[in-house]
Each structure stands twice: as structure tokens, then as C-alpha cells.
Amino acid sequence: MNKLKSISTFILCTVFVFASNFIPSEKVSANTSRIGGQNRYETSINISQNGWTSSKYVILASGQDYADALCAAPIANKYGAPILLIPNNSLDENVKEEITRLKADQIIEMGGPYSISYNVENQLKSMGLNVQRLGGADRYETSVIAAEALGKPSKVAVASGEGYADALSIAPIAARQGMPILLTNKNAVPETVEEYIDSNKSNILQTYVVGGNGVIPGSTLGSIPNVIRISGINRYETNVNVLNKFKSSIDLDNVYLSRGEGPAGNEFADALSASALAAKKNAPIILVEDNLNKNTKDFIKNNISATANIVAVGGQISVSDYLLTRIELIVLINGIDSRLQTIEDSTDNPDEKDAVFQIVDNLNDLISNKLDNVSTIVSDIKSNKEKIHEILQNLSEVERDDLQNRIDADNILHQYLDTLQQLINALQW
Fold first, then answer.
1. Strands 83-86, 106-110: pairing kind
2. Alpha-carbon gap, residue 388 to 394, rounded angstroms
3. pLDDT (tens digit per residue) in 315-326
4. Residue 67 to residue 62: CA distance in whole angstroms
5. What strand order describes the sheet that includes 83-86?
6. What Pfam family does this protein match (any one) (predicted)?
7. Number of domains forming the structure of the chain
8. Are 178 and 261 within one domain?
9. What is the structure's pLDDT at 40?
């Protein structure tokens, strides 16, 4: 049986090797899906349509600046509402249509007029909607006003207001638990935040400080009660440590993947929109980058089952199909290993051999499906070879070498496939 387990591990490594040589396809398989759009605003609408047939309330947040919007998830969860993103100074027709579809009549704007202008507010009122603004003089006061709207909490989260990743890591969890997200800066806890904490000190049993000393120094936390810091060496490890901290209280049958950073500075948008849906399903948001961070990979491998629904939020630039497929393979192979271990632990089971054969058949089917996908990619590359060579003339030497490797990679692929088939055949004793 150990032979089978070692083979499944080999298959995992092998699939990763040949998958990394190919351009990801648009097809995503059974337990994975995508909620995306042409831009962050359309993505937020599609998230709303995925999670809500109707909602009395809609939370509006800026899609251009994360500052005031980081505290939106707990408000959204309180009212059972989606979060829709809009530009600071205009109300998109598609957003209007979504508000109408939801049959909403209550709008909550997150942030002051620099985040959502009075022009937008007036347009909302002209639609016959009741509009409430949760906004202060700055992002810190806005976080306090949002916290006050949640009542008297027994737990609060504190995150940096100078970055978005740490706040978004805890957002769906905080939302689900009715925990406000208070923002602070690196130099000191803002006076408005400190006053809020002081006035609620008798209620606050736990304060979760999300992020390391580099973003929230311990020296600034003297007035904050019952501190529990959750941090890591980077935003991805912090994200994983947040999930591990609250793992017993979240449902890992649904998982949302969202980009954790990027050059444009607006990569917060998809995770922000998804935080309301994740909270509704009591699901985590896992932050990812172009490649799979080791801490993230280990968390997925150790915690996400092969039957989980894994949802990429945003388009290919945010979470590529290659990354999504790689994550799917991790959980699938891990599931196979678990089933093999179960059989190994049940050595007195008379149906053990039949169970092993069934696992091998399932594994063969999984590999075949992946190979069909890859074969299509190879075919597309070969059929467009002349066009690719024309493009090569305009590429750098590094880009040209990489693309040429992709064109020639099918020979390597078939070697791997032959090896895999031999291994599978060898198991059919």
C-alpha cells in the first residue's frame, strides 16, 4: 500500500512539472469555479448575483481606494447584504440594475465624500432609495463609526489602515463573528480608535491584532486590552495564520481565492467584494499570488478536502486558471492519499483489493481529463506555430526562449504520460 501512496505523490509532482510548461486554459473543472468580470465593478456585481437573489440592503464601497472600505464586511454581514463597488464619483448603470434586481431600498455608503461623492448619493436618492453614510474625517474615524454601528462587541480586530491584505484576511471571519475591524497606523493608534476602545474596554474580551511589528509595532498597543497578535513574515503567512487561528469556527467546504497584492494597487477590490459572500457562507478568503506561496500550499494541502468548492475571485490576471488547476490537483491527490491511508489502516477488509482498483481507476480518469486539457493546449500551440514565430521577432531573448520551450514541450509531455501509464498499468495485478 505504501507503494500506492508513493505513486500518488509521484503523480502530483509529475503533473506539476508538465502543467508548468503550458499556458493555462479557460476550462475549470468540477470542484473549482470562477466569479469574475471585465473589471472590479462587474466582478462585484457577479459576486452579488452569485450569492443573493434579493436583499433589502446594499453596501456601496469605493473600488478605487481601499481605505474606507476595509470595514465593510462586518456591516454587510449584519444586514445580510452584498458589497457593490463603484467609482468614487459615478454610479454605473449596471450597479443601478443590480440594486433594482435585489429589490433593495436601503443603501449604506462606506466612507466620506472622497470615497463616495455626494453626486453618487444624490443619484441614489433620486432612485427612491434611503441612503445612510458610514464615514468619518479619515479611514480611522470611519472604522470607528462602522464599529459603533455593530453595537457592543466582545471581540475586535485591529489591522493596518496603510495596507489592505491583513484586514481582508480577517474580514469574512470578523464579519461572521460580529467583530468590528478597527484601523490603525504604524506610528500610533489614532485618537478616535483609542477612544472607542477605551469606552468599550469593559466589553472587549479579545483584541486580535492582525499583522507583525513591521506594520503595527507593539509599542503602539499599550492602551489596547487583551491583545492576541496574529502575524507572519509576509501577508500570505499572516493570512494562513489567521485561518489557522479560527479554523475550528469556519467552514472549509467553500474557499475563495483572491489576489493578495499587485503593481496596480487596486488588487484589494476582488477580496473586498468577496468578503461579504465568504462571510455569508462562513468561508475563508485565501490570498494568492502568481505562484503558490509555500505557507498557502501547506494550508491547502492540510485542510482543504477534494470535495471542497474552490472559487477564484476575479479574472485571469487576479487568479490564473493555471494556479486554480494546481490547487485543484493538490486537494485531489491529497484526497487520494487519504483514501489510500484509510485502506491501509483497514488491513482486515476483505474488499481491500477492489477498493484499491477503484482508486486506481479514479486516478486514471483524473489524469486522462487533465491530459485531454493539456493535449488541446499543445494542439493549439502547434497549429499556431507560424504565428508564434512571427511574434517571436518582437520578444526579448528571455521571452523568446520561454515561448519556444512551450512549443517544444509536447515531446517532454508524452514521456511523462508514458511513464504515468506504465505506473498505472503496473498496479492492475
1. unpaired
2. 10
3. 888 898 878 877
4. 9
5. 83-86, 57-62, 106-110, 130-134
6. CW_binding_2
7. 2
8. yes
9. 92
